[in-house]
Structures are given as structure tokens and as C-alpha cells.
Design a protein that fits this description.
Elements lengths: L6 H23 L9 H23 L6
Helix pairs in contact: 1-2
Length: 67
């Protein structure tokens, strides 16, 4: 039986990647008091671009794996 598309693989990748992103955000927020004044917009940009990349990669991981 050949699987063509699997939401399960994409869903697992999505949650694992978001857990890793949450850990990275937590590490970055440890020293928030020492950030520059305009660092908040770069931090928001980092989160937005990371989440967009996670969504694209989770859709790609739903596709069948080549052997």
C-alpha cells in the first residue's frame, strides 16, 4: 500500500517544530531587559517568519517520502 499524502506526518512535524520555537523564544526572552529599544519589532519578525516557515515545511512533510 502506497501512501500519497499524510496529515499525520505534517501534524507531528508542526507540533514538534512549534515546541522547539517556543523553547527558542523562551531563551531569547530571558534577557529581554538588555535589548535595544527597537528589538521588539525584530523579535516579532523572527516569530512571524519562523511560524510561516514551519507551516510551509509541515505542508511539505505531508507529501510522500522518497526512498
Amino acid at each position: 500500500m502506497k501512501r500519497t499524502f499524510s496529515f499525520k506526518r505534517g501534524f507531528i512535524f508542526f507540533w514538534l517544530a512549534n515546541i522547539i520555537l517556543l523553547a527558542m523564544i523562551g531563551i531569547l526572552l530571558i534577557n529581554k531587559e538588555s535589548w535595544a529599544d527597537d528589538a521588539q519589532k525584530y523579535f516579532t519578525l523572527f516569530i512571524t517568519l519562523s511560524e510561516a516557515m514551519i507551516l510551509l515545511l509541515s505542508l511539505a512533510s505531508c507529501l510522500p517520502q522518497k526512498k
